[in-house]
Write a structure and sequence with these properties.
The protein has 150 residues and is an all-alpha fold. The protein has helices at residues 2-29, 31-34, 52-69, 74-97, 110-124, 142-146. It has one domain (1-106). The chain is built from six helices and no strands. InterPro entries: BETA-OHASE-like.
Length: 150
């Protein structure tokens, strides 16, 4: 049970880590990698921004390794929490919001509509500065209210 709680806690914590990374790294010194993500359309299958998956994948893989081959089993479950968040991020951000993969095109879910709205507000600003809505899975209530969803 403790390992399930560790995994869940890390998953939830990753939203804050993502927010901080997005605001201060991607819209900061890492803008040269993130900039193409703010350009309209996707002319290629991959974009430079996709390199950021490595920022989270490498520590997750290292935690799997050290959690498996040392007495510190809890490290495996920290890595699992990071991996689960990464999968959720991919499904929500790349599949549902940006439709980079046409798997779930016609969803009418209230949460997903609010999430899309918040992300559109983020992408409204094409530049590095003055953006908002840096998180991914936790949507500010105002985006539900704006659509009269709650």
């Amino acid at each position: 049970m403790i390992y399930a709680l560790i995994t869940l806690a890390v998953f939830l914590t990753m939203e804050g880590v993502t927010w901080l990374t997005h605001k201060y790294v991607m819209h900061g010194f890492g803008w040269f990698l993130h900039e193409d993500h703010h350009e309209p359309g996707y002319p290629h299958v991959f974009e430079k921004n996709d390199a950021f998956f490595i920022v989270f994948a490498v520590p997750s893989m290292a935690l799997f390794y050290f959690g498996t081959y040392t007495a510190h089993t809890y490290l495996f479950f920290i890595g699992l929490g990071i991996l689960c968040y990464g999968i959720a991020y991919f499904l929500v951000h790349d599949v549902l919001i940006h439709q980079r993969f046409k798997w779930f095109k016609n969803t009418n879910n209230k949460y997903l509509k609010a999430l899309r709205k918040a992300h559109k507000v983020h992408h409204k600003n094409m530049g590095k500065e003055d953006s908002q809505c840096f998180g991914m899975l936790f949507v500010p209530l105002k985006y539900f209210r704006e659509q009269k969803l709650i």
